[in-house]
Every structure is written in C-alpha cells, then in structure tokens.
Amino acid sequence: MNMLGNGLSGLHAAQMHLATTSNNIANATTPGYSRQQLLVSARPGGFMGAGSGVQVDGVRRVADEYLTAQIWRASTQAGFSTTKASYLGKTEEVFGSKGASISMGLDSLFAALNSSVESPNDIATRQSVMNEAKSLASRFSTINQSLESQLKQVEEQIKGSVTEVNTRLENIARINKEIQRNMSNGDVPPQLLDARDQAVAELSEMVDIRTTENADGTINITLPKGQPLVLGTSAASFETFPDPANPQMSSLSLTIGNTTYEIQENVGGKMGALFDYRDGSWQQSRDFIDELAMQLADGFNSILANGTDLNGNPPALDLFTYDPDNPAGTLKVTDGFTAEMLAFGQDGTPGDNSNLKDLLAFADTKLTFTSLGSDATLNEAYAMYLGELGIQSRQAQLESDSADGELLRALNERDGVSAVNLDEEGINIIVYQQAYQANAKVISTADQLFQTMMTMF
Fold it and tell me: What's the predicted TM-score (pTM) here?
C-alpha cells in the first residue's frame, strides 16, 4: 500500500501549495508583504529505499535582509531631503515675493528721495518719502511674520513627530514580544516578520536607525551614535523641552528605563530635517533680515542726525525705530515723526538739499554684513541672500529627487526578490492543481488495485 501513502502525502502537499499560493495572491497588494514558499522534501524509506512520498517541512518567507536594510536607509534620506526641500522652497518664496521684496521697497524709497532733490521743501514729495519708508518697514514685518509662522509650524511638527516616533517604537517592541513568544514555540509566522520590517521602515522615514538581531528573534534599534530606541521588548521614548537659551525652540531628549539622553546630533529622517532646517536655514534667514533692518535704520538715522529739518532745526526724532531683540519684526517709522522733520538740509537755509544727497549716496554705501560674511550695499545684500536661498532650495530639491529615486530603486530591488508576481503565482495555481488531480488519481488507482486484490480471495 506504499502507492496509497505516496498519493495521500502528495495530495496533502498539493493542498498546502495551493493554500500558500492563494495567500500570496490575496496579499499581492499588501504593503511590505513577502511572498511565501512551501518547503517540501522527499520522505525516506519505502520499498527498497525508493521513498515513501513527500513531507511538508514548513513555509519559507522570501526576503533579503540586505535589500530590506537598503530600503530603510533610503527611506531615512528621502524623509530628510523631502522635508528640508519643502521648507527651503517656502522661505525662498517669501523672500522673493513682490509683496515682501526688500529690494523693491528700497528702490521705491530711494526713488522718492530722488524726486525731492529739486524741491526739498515740497511737502508732497516729503510725504511720498514718508509713505515709502512706512511701506518698506511693512515689508520687513511681512517677512518676519512669515518666519515666525514657519517657526511655529516647525515646532508643531517636531512635537507631532515625537508622538509619531514614540508610537512606532512601542509598536516594534510589541511585535518583538510576539516574535519572542513564537520563537520559544519554534514557529514564527512570516506575517509577524513582515509586520516588523514594515514598522521599522516607517520608523526609518522619521529617524536614522541602526539594527541588530538577537538570538531570541527580537531586534535592537539604535540611533547612529548608539542611543537605544528599542531593546528587545522595551521601547524608548523621545521628549521635547524648551531650549534654555531660547524657550521658543524645543530641544530633544530620549529616555529608556531610568536612563535619559539629551540628543545633540541630527537624528536624520523627517524629524532630523525639522531641527536641521530650524537651526540652520531658518536661523540664517532670521539673522540676515534682522541685520538688514538694523543697517537700514541705523544708516538712515545717522545721516539724518547730521542735517536740519524743514524749519532749519536738527531733527527731534529718529526716522526709524526698532527693538534690538526683534529688529525686523518691530522696525517702523517713529511715532510722531512728520514729513517736516526730514533733515534734507545741513545749513538750515531754504532749498538746501546737501543732506538729502548724502541719503541718496547711502544707496551705494558698502556695509558689513556679518550674516553674509561680506560687505555689500543694502540692495546687494538682499539680492545676495535671495540668490543664496535659491541655490539652497534648488540643491535641496535635487537631493530630494535623488533620494526619492534611490528609494524607488531600493523598493524595486526588494520587490524583485520578495514581492508577489501574479503571473508566476497564476502558473503555480495550475501546476499545483494538476499535482492535486494527479495525486488524487494515484489514490484512486491504488484503491482500484486494492479492490481488485480483494476480489481474488
């Protein structure tokens, strides 16, 4: 009756093959799913060692750890680059918009001053200068408000990212615990390993990670410098706290068990990009626009202080005023300053425009900009910084496009090994169906032979 046993084992194997194949087809579009293969081997023994059928040894998850890790690395870079490029693009738009352009405001102010050269005592042209000065101060305020709004958005995203990362860390630790429990029973479901790989991939988009595998099937996850994120079944948690030097900004810490680490380095991924942009490009923009506001106000006020107003008197007030703690956000024409107070003359005589000429010459005066690291006129400085923003924005976009392409390539490489090929699985269905039918025929034939043998007695 060896034939009957062979047929039954083959029937069972064909059934299992069909079940595995149908599961692959059902999960063809499931994110992170790795196709499965049934492992079978020939049974030893049988008549004269010819074998006694087939045995099912288990289910193999088709996955490549190197390709999976490659996706994690690419996800980190894509998350970082995309986030940074988005914010840099918005900053470039703010500085380059017509409504906020300091260059356009400076051109209008100096054009109004130039219109007063022939008739410095004319109230209408003086009032035009006052209007343009107020408009220019408003442009600084617009840029400052945009930067402040960006800072609030970045801080909100940082706090949201911390919550998201902590949730993902807890999820990985939970899956680790399930894997550990199943490992002790000698059978880890492939779906659990897929779920963990997918959870780690989602985490890697947020922060840069390193992983190691433990003997019990769990994995440890750390930051590049070794701070632990997941240790087996224990998860760490990130927290934010106000920066003592600037309470508007958050600092980051990491706690696991009774140990807390203050995170100083860039953590990579989307969360790292937020800190990188805030502490880098955003701060540079803020420093520059504040310095430009101070150079403008101090320069005009200094020149006007050397002249005489419409009544032949030294000016009683500065044209511009600002708070040194927030120059761009507080720059304005001094309350109570009137068109008559503009000190266009120097000797108090009617029609004197000598100080006005000094004001016009200020447009071409080279000033030292610490935020730029060079000397430039007011207009040149703004153009230089706008150009620098453009370069940074384009470079960030190129890096984002490159990172997205690298991630797509990594996903395609992984899918080439692990993803479900519906054409292949469709062929397998036919093959295993035929195998099932053939084994059923073997069983039927064995039964007929048995019945024939029985009739002989």
Answer: 0.89
